[in-house]
Write a structure and sequence with these properties.
alpha+beta, elongated, four-stranded antiparallel sheet, 8 strands
Length: 356
Protein backbone atom coordinates (compact mmCIF):
# COMPACT_ATOMS: atom_id res chain seq x y z
CA UNK A 1 0.00 0.00 0.00
CA UNK A 2 1.49 3.38 -1.09
CA UNK A 3 1.08 6.78 0.57
CA UNK A 4 -1.95 5.79 2.66
CA UNK A 5 -3.28 8.50 4.95
CA UNK A 6 -6.14 8.25 7.40
CA UNK A 7 -9.12 10.55 7.01
CA UNK A 8 -9.92 13.08 9.69
CA UNK A 9 -10.93 11.90 13.14
CA UNK A 10 -14.55 10.76 13.43
CA UNK A 11 -14.78 9.83 9.73
CA UNK A 12 -14.45 6.37 8.17
CA UNK A 13 -10.86 5.12 8.04
CA UNK A 14 -9.07 3.91 4.95
CA UNK A 15 -9.44 0.37 6.29
CA UNK A 16 -13.22 0.83 6.34
CA UNK A 17 -13.27 1.71 2.67
CA UNK A 18 -10.96 -1.25 1.91
CA UNK A 19 -13.38 -3.57 3.69
CA UNK A 20 -16.28 -2.23 1.63
CA UNK A 21 -14.41 -2.71 -1.66
CA UNK A 22 -13.00 -6.16 -0.94
CA UNK A 23 -16.51 -7.48 -0.20
CA UNK A 24 -17.11 -7.35 -3.95
CA UNK A 25 -13.73 -7.10 -5.72
CA UNK A 26 -10.28 -8.69 -5.40
CA UNK A 27 -7.96 -5.77 -4.58
CA UNK A 28 -4.64 -5.65 -6.44
CA UNK A 29 -3.34 -2.33 -5.11
CA UNK A 30 -4.53 0.33 -2.66
CA UNK A 31 -3.38 3.90 -2.18
CA UNK A 32 -4.46 7.51 -1.77
CA UNK A 33 -4.66 9.17 -5.18
CA UNK A 34 -5.86 12.74 -5.70
CA UNK A 35 -6.66 12.75 -1.97
CA UNK A 36 -9.18 9.91 -2.42
CA UNK A 37 -9.03 6.28 -1.24
CA UNK A 38 -8.13 4.39 -4.43
CA UNK A 39 -8.24 0.68 -5.18
CA UNK A 40 -7.09 -1.13 -8.29
CA UNK A 41 -9.13 -4.31 -8.56
CA UNK A 42 -9.20 -7.43 -10.70
CA UNK A 43 -11.75 -7.62 -13.50
CA UNK A 44 -14.21 -10.38 -12.64
CA UNK A 45 -17.70 -11.41 -13.87
CA UNK A 46 -20.72 -9.30 -12.93
CA UNK A 47 -18.74 -6.09 -12.33
CA UNK A 48 -21.86 -4.00 -12.90
CA UNK A 49 -23.97 -5.49 -10.10
CA UNK A 50 -21.03 -5.77 -7.74
CA UNK A 51 -20.33 -2.07 -8.14
CA UNK A 52 -24.02 -1.23 -7.57
CA UNK A 53 -23.88 -3.19 -4.31
CA UNK A 54 -20.76 -1.26 -3.32
CA UNK A 55 -22.52 2.03 -4.04
CA UNK A 56 -25.41 0.99 -1.80
CA UNK A 57 -23.03 0.20 1.07
CA UNK A 58 -21.16 3.49 0.69
CA UNK A 59 -24.39 5.47 0.47
CA UNK A 60 -25.24 4.45 4.06
CA UNK A 61 -22.19 6.38 5.30
CA UNK A 62 -22.54 9.35 2.93
CA UNK A 63 -19.96 8.31 0.31
CA UNK A 64 -19.96 7.21 -3.32
CA UNK A 65 -17.42 5.69 -5.71
CA UNK A 66 -16.34 5.79 -9.33
CA UNK A 67 -15.12 2.85 -11.42
CA UNK A 68 -12.88 3.61 -14.39
CA UNK A 69 -10.62 1.68 -16.76
CA UNK A 70 -7.17 3.28 -16.50
CA UNK A 71 -4.40 1.85 -18.68
CA UNK A 72 -6.20 -1.51 -18.87
CA UNK A 73 -6.64 -1.64 -15.10
CA UNK A 74 -9.88 -1.16 -13.13
CA UNK A 75 -9.69 1.71 -10.64
CA UNK A 76 -12.24 2.37 -7.91
CA UNK A 77 -12.08 5.68 -6.03
CA UNK A 78 -14.20 6.69 -3.04
CA UNK A 79 -15.51 10.23 -2.48
CA UNK A 80 -17.77 11.97 -0.01
CA UNK A 81 -21.25 12.66 -1.39
CA UNK A 82 -22.09 16.31 -1.93
CA UNK A 83 -25.35 17.10 -0.11
CA UNK A 84 -28.19 18.44 -2.25
CA UNK A 85 -30.68 21.13 -1.37
CA UNK A 86 -34.31 20.06 -1.05
CA UNK A 87 -36.59 21.43 -3.76
CA UNK A 88 -39.17 24.08 -2.95
CA UNK A 89 -42.31 22.48 -4.37
CA UNK A 90 -44.14 25.77 -4.17
CA UNK A 91 -42.13 26.83 -7.23
CA UNK A 92 -43.23 23.71 -9.13
CA UNK A 93 -46.87 24.32 -8.22
CA UNK A 94 -46.71 28.03 -9.12
CA UNK A 95 -45.11 27.31 -12.50
CA UNK A 96 -47.62 24.52 -13.16
CA UNK A 97 -50.63 26.80 -12.68
CA UNK A 98 -48.93 29.66 -14.54
CA UNK A 99 -48.37 27.35 -17.51
CA UNK A 100 -51.99 26.20 -17.38
CA UNK A 101 -53.00 29.87 -17.71
CA UNK A 102 -50.61 30.62 -20.59
CA UNK A 103 -51.51 27.46 -22.52
CA UNK A 104 -55.21 28.19 -22.04
CA UNK A 105 -54.71 31.69 -23.46
CA UNK A 106 -52.76 30.24 -26.39
CA UNK A 107 -55.46 27.62 -26.94
CA UNK A 108 -58.17 30.26 -26.84
CA UNK A 109 -56.40 32.31 -29.53
CA UNK A 110 -56.11 29.21 -31.72
CA UNK A 111 -59.78 28.33 -31.09
CA UNK A 112 -61.35 31.69 -31.93
CA UNK A 113 -62.28 30.32 -35.38
CA UNK A 114 -64.09 27.37 -33.75
CA UNK A 115 -67.59 27.21 -32.26
CA UNK A 116 -66.66 26.85 -28.59
CA UNK A 117 -63.29 28.53 -28.04
CA UNK A 118 -63.35 28.08 -24.25
CA UNK A 119 -63.92 24.32 -24.50
CA UNK A 120 -61.28 23.89 -27.21
CA UNK A 121 -58.81 26.03 -25.28
CA UNK A 122 -59.30 23.75 -22.28
CA UNK A 123 -58.80 20.66 -24.45
CA UNK A 124 -55.60 22.15 -25.87
CA UNK A 125 -54.31 22.85 -22.36
CA UNK A 126 -54.99 19.28 -21.25
CA UNK A 127 -53.38 17.88 -24.40
CA UNK A 128 -50.18 19.96 -24.39
CA UNK A 129 -49.68 19.63 -20.62
CA UNK A 130 -50.15 15.85 -20.89
CA UNK A 131 -47.65 15.51 -23.73
CA UNK A 132 -44.94 17.60 -22.07
CA UNK A 133 -45.64 16.57 -18.49
CA UNK A 134 -45.71 12.83 -19.15
CA UNK A 135 -42.47 13.13 -21.11
CA UNK A 136 -40.84 14.46 -17.94
CA UNK A 137 -42.61 11.86 -15.81
CA UNK A 138 -40.99 9.21 -18.01
CA UNK A 139 -37.63 10.60 -16.92
CA UNK A 140 -38.83 10.67 -13.32
CA UNK A 141 -39.87 7.01 -13.47
CA UNK A 142 -36.42 6.05 -14.76
CA UNK A 143 -34.79 8.01 -11.96
CA UNK A 144 -37.00 6.38 -9.33
CA UNK A 145 -36.34 2.94 -10.83
CA UNK A 146 -32.63 3.34 -10.12
CA UNK A 147 -33.11 4.79 -6.64
CA UNK A 148 -31.95 8.28 -7.61
CA UNK A 149 -33.26 11.70 -6.69
CA UNK A 150 -34.77 14.41 -8.86
CA UNK A 151 -37.15 17.32 -8.55
CA UNK A 152 -40.74 17.34 -9.72
CA UNK A 153 -41.27 18.79 -13.22
CA UNK A 154 -40.82 22.53 -13.65
CA UNK A 155 -43.26 23.70 -16.33
CA UNK A 156 -42.13 26.79 -18.20
CA UNK A 157 -44.88 29.25 -19.24
CA UNK A 158 -44.51 31.00 -22.58
CA UNK A 159 -46.30 33.16 -25.14
CA UNK A 160 -48.71 32.02 -27.90
CA UNK A 161 -49.01 30.04 -30.10
CA UNK A 162 -48.14 27.29 -27.59
CA UNK A 163 -48.13 29.07 -24.26
CA UNK A 164 -45.17 27.05 -22.94
CA UNK A 165 -41.50 26.35 -23.49
CA UNK A 166 -41.86 22.80 -22.16
CA UNK A 167 -40.93 21.28 -18.83
CA UNK A 168 -37.73 20.12 -17.13
CA UNK A 169 -36.72 18.19 -14.05
CA UNK A 170 -33.63 18.81 -11.95
CA UNK A 171 -31.53 15.69 -11.40
CA UNK A 172 -29.90 15.53 -7.96
CA UNK A 173 -28.04 12.20 -8.01
CA UNK A 174 -25.04 10.91 -9.92
CA UNK A 175 -25.93 8.33 -12.58
CA UNK A 176 -24.56 4.93 -11.47
CA UNK A 177 -23.92 3.28 -14.86
CA UNK A 178 -24.75 3.29 -18.57
CA UNK A 179 -27.91 1.24 -18.05
CA UNK A 180 -29.32 3.97 -15.81
CA UNK A 181 -28.14 6.71 -18.20
CA UNK A 182 -29.85 4.94 -21.11
CA UNK A 183 -33.09 4.57 -19.14
CA UNK A 184 -32.97 8.25 -18.20
CA UNK A 185 -32.48 9.28 -21.83
CA UNK A 186 -34.96 6.86 -23.41
CA UNK A 187 -37.95 6.78 -21.05
CA UNK A 188 -38.95 10.42 -21.54
CA UNK A 189 -39.07 10.33 -25.36
CA UNK A 190 -40.79 6.92 -25.42
CA UNK A 191 -43.56 7.97 -23.03
CA UNK A 192 -43.89 11.43 -24.61
CA UNK A 193 -44.05 9.94 -28.11
CA UNK A 194 -46.81 7.48 -27.17
CA UNK A 195 -48.87 10.25 -25.56
CA UNK A 196 -48.27 12.56 -28.55
CA UNK A 197 -49.49 9.88 -30.97
CA UNK A 198 -52.64 9.31 -28.89
CA UNK A 199 -53.31 13.06 -28.79
CA UNK A 200 -52.72 13.27 -32.54
CA UNK A 201 -55.16 10.44 -33.26
CA UNK A 202 -57.78 12.28 -31.19
CA UNK A 203 -57.11 15.69 -32.73
CA UNK A 204 -56.59 14.98 -36.43
CA UNK A 205 -60.22 14.00 -37.23
CA UNK A 206 -61.22 17.41 -35.86
CA UNK A 207 -58.85 19.16 -38.29
CA UNK A 208 -59.54 20.43 -41.80
CA UNK A 209 -57.90 19.53 -45.11
CA UNK A 210 -58.17 21.74 -48.21
CA UNK A 211 -56.44 22.24 -51.54
CA UNK A 212 -54.65 25.57 -51.99
CA UNK A 213 -52.79 27.46 -54.73
CA UNK A 214 -49.81 28.44 -52.56
CA UNK A 215 -48.41 27.34 -49.20
CA UNK A 216 -48.83 29.82 -46.36
CA UNK A 217 -45.57 31.51 -45.22
CA UNK A 218 -44.18 29.71 -42.19
CA UNK A 219 -46.16 26.52 -42.82
CA UNK A 220 -44.29 23.50 -41.44
CA UNK A 221 -44.07 20.08 -43.09
CA UNK A 222 -45.48 17.24 -41.00
CA UNK A 223 -43.23 14.54 -39.47
CA UNK A 224 -43.24 11.21 -41.31
CA UNK A 225 -45.60 9.52 -38.84
CA UNK A 226 -47.83 12.59 -38.67
CA UNK A 227 -48.21 12.63 -42.46
CA UNK A 228 -49.12 8.93 -42.40
CA UNK A 229 -51.78 9.55 -39.74
CA UNK A 230 -53.21 12.43 -41.76
CA UNK A 231 -53.66 10.13 -44.73
CA UNK A 232 -55.19 7.38 -42.60
CA UNK A 233 -57.48 9.49 -40.43
CA UNK A 234 -58.63 12.26 -42.78
CA UNK A 235 -60.52 12.01 -46.03
CA UNK A 236 -58.75 13.78 -48.87
CA UNK A 237 -61.21 16.37 -50.27
CA UNK A 238 -61.94 16.53 -54.02
CA UNK A 239 -59.72 18.80 -56.09
CA UNK A 240 -61.77 19.87 -59.13
CA UNK A 241 -59.54 22.91 -59.77
CA UNK A 242 -56.38 20.76 -59.65
CA UNK A 243 -54.70 22.95 -57.06
CA UNK A 244 -51.10 21.89 -56.35
CA UNK A 245 -50.94 21.85 -52.56
CA UNK A 246 -52.89 20.13 -49.80
CA UNK A 247 -53.01 22.20 -46.60
CA UNK A 248 -54.19 21.11 -43.16
CA UNK A 249 -55.59 23.46 -40.55
CA UNK A 250 -54.90 21.72 -37.27
CA UNK A 251 -57.39 21.53 -34.46
CA UNK A 252 -55.70 22.71 -31.20
CA UNK A 253 -55.58 19.10 -29.93
CA UNK A 254 -53.87 17.97 -33.14
CA UNK A 255 -51.40 20.85 -32.77
CA UNK A 256 -50.49 19.58 -29.27
CA UNK A 257 -49.77 16.16 -30.79
CA UNK A 258 -47.72 17.73 -33.58
CA UNK A 259 -45.64 19.63 -31.04
CA UNK A 260 -45.15 16.47 -28.98
CA UNK A 261 -43.81 14.51 -31.95
CA UNK A 262 -41.55 17.40 -32.96
CA UNK A 263 -40.25 17.75 -29.40
CA UNK A 264 -39.50 14.01 -29.42
CA UNK A 265 -37.39 14.45 -32.55
CA UNK A 266 -35.56 17.42 -31.04
CA UNK A 267 -34.82 15.56 -27.81
CA UNK A 268 -33.48 12.52 -29.65
CA UNK A 269 -30.85 14.44 -31.62
CA UNK A 270 -27.61 12.69 -30.50
CA UNK A 271 -25.99 15.84 -29.15
CA UNK A 272 -24.96 17.39 -25.85
CA UNK A 273 -27.31 17.09 -22.88
CA UNK A 274 -30.31 16.13 -25.03
CA UNK A 275 -31.89 12.73 -24.41
CA UNK A 276 -30.37 11.49 -27.65
CA UNK A 277 -26.99 12.70 -26.41
CA UNK A 278 -27.36 10.53 -23.28
CA UNK A 279 -28.29 7.50 -25.38
CA UNK A 280 -25.45 8.05 -27.86
CA UNK A 281 -22.95 8.37 -24.98
CA UNK A 282 -23.99 4.92 -23.70
CA UNK A 283 -22.98 3.26 -26.96
CA UNK A 284 -20.33 5.55 -28.43
CA UNK A 285 -18.50 7.14 -25.51
CA UNK A 286 -17.62 10.80 -25.15
CA UNK A 287 -15.47 11.40 -28.25
CA UNK A 288 -17.45 9.42 -30.83
CA UNK A 289 -20.71 10.83 -29.50
CA UNK A 290 -19.39 14.37 -30.07
CA UNK A 291 -18.49 13.53 -33.67
CA UNK A 292 -21.97 12.09 -34.30
CA UNK A 293 -23.56 15.09 -32.57
CA UNK A 294 -21.76 17.64 -34.75
CA UNK A 295 -22.61 15.58 -37.84
CA UNK A 296 -26.30 15.64 -36.88
CA UNK A 297 -26.17 19.39 -36.29
CA UNK A 298 -24.52 19.90 -39.67
CA UNK A 299 -27.29 17.91 -41.35
CA UNK A 300 -29.92 20.06 -39.63
CA UNK A 301 -28.20 23.21 -40.93
CA UNK A 302 -28.06 21.80 -44.46
CA UNK A 303 -31.77 20.95 -44.37
CA UNK A 304 -32.74 24.44 -43.18
CA UNK A 305 -33.76 23.45 -39.64
CA UNK A 306 -31.84 26.37 -38.17
CA UNK A 307 -33.63 26.54 -34.83
CA UNK A 308 -33.15 22.84 -34.07
CA UNK A 309 -29.51 23.02 -35.17
CA UNK A 310 -28.74 26.06 -33.01
CA UNK A 311 -30.50 24.55 -30.00
CA UNK A 312 -28.57 21.28 -30.35
CA UNK A 313 -25.31 23.17 -30.91
CA UNK A 314 -25.86 25.12 -27.68
CA UNK A 315 -26.10 21.85 -25.74
CA UNK A 316 -22.76 20.70 -27.16
CA UNK A 317 -20.90 23.32 -25.10
CA UNK A 318 -21.98 21.63 -21.86
CA UNK A 319 -19.69 18.70 -20.95
CA UNK A 320 -21.52 15.41 -20.61
CA UNK A 321 -21.11 14.02 -17.06
CA UNK A 322 -19.76 10.48 -16.86
CA UNK A 323 -21.72 7.85 -14.95
CA UNK A 324 -20.02 6.55 -11.82
CA UNK A 325 -19.29 3.27 -13.60
CA UNK A 326 -17.84 3.73 -17.10
CA UNK A 327 -16.50 0.17 -17.28
CA UNK A 328 -19.78 -1.78 -17.59
CA UNK A 329 -21.59 -1.98 -20.91
CA UNK A 330 -25.25 -1.42 -21.72
CA UNK A 331 -27.39 -4.53 -21.22
CA UNK A 332 -28.72 -6.52 -24.20
CA UNK A 333 -32.34 -5.64 -23.44
CA UNK A 334 -31.52 -1.95 -23.64
CA UNK A 335 -29.75 -2.46 -26.95
CA UNK A 336 -33.04 -3.82 -28.27
CA UNK A 337 -34.93 -0.85 -26.82
CA UNK A 338 -32.41 1.40 -28.58
CA UNK A 339 -33.74 0.07 -31.91
CA UNK A 340 -37.22 1.20 -30.85
CA UNK A 341 -35.83 4.63 -29.96
CA UNK A 342 -34.16 4.91 -33.38
CA UNK A 343 -37.47 4.03 -35.05
CA UNK A 344 -39.24 6.70 -32.98
CA UNK A 345 -36.62 9.26 -34.02
CA UNK A 346 -37.01 8.41 -37.71
CA UNK A 347 -40.82 8.54 -37.55
CA UNK A 348 -40.61 11.92 -35.79
CA UNK A 349 -38.42 13.46 -38.51
CA UNK A 350 -39.86 15.76 -41.12
CA UNK A 351 -38.78 15.23 -44.76
CA UNK A 352 -35.48 17.06 -45.40
CA UNK A 353 -35.75 20.46 -47.12
CA UNK A 354 -32.49 21.27 -48.84
CA UNK A 355 -32.07 24.97 -49.72
CA UNK A 356 -30.15 24.17 -52.90
Amino acid sequence: MDDVESPQSGEPLFEDFRNFVERYFPIEEELFEFNAPTFYVSEIPDMKNRFLALLKDLDHIGYLATMRRINRRIRIQVFRKIPTRPSDRRINVALFFATICTTFIAGFIQSMRLENPFLNAGLFTIAIMSVLGLHEMGHKLAIKKHGLEASDPYFIPGPPPLGTFGAVISQKSMIPNKDALFDLGAMGPIVGFVVAVIVTIIGLPLSELKWVETIRPGALPPPILYEYLIVRLLEIPPNPQHLPYLEITLHPIALAGYVGILVTMLNLIPAGQLDGGHIAYCFLGRRSRSIVGFAAIGFLFLTSYWFFALFALFTMFQPHPDPLDTVSKVSLSRKLVALVVIAIFVLSLTPPQFPF
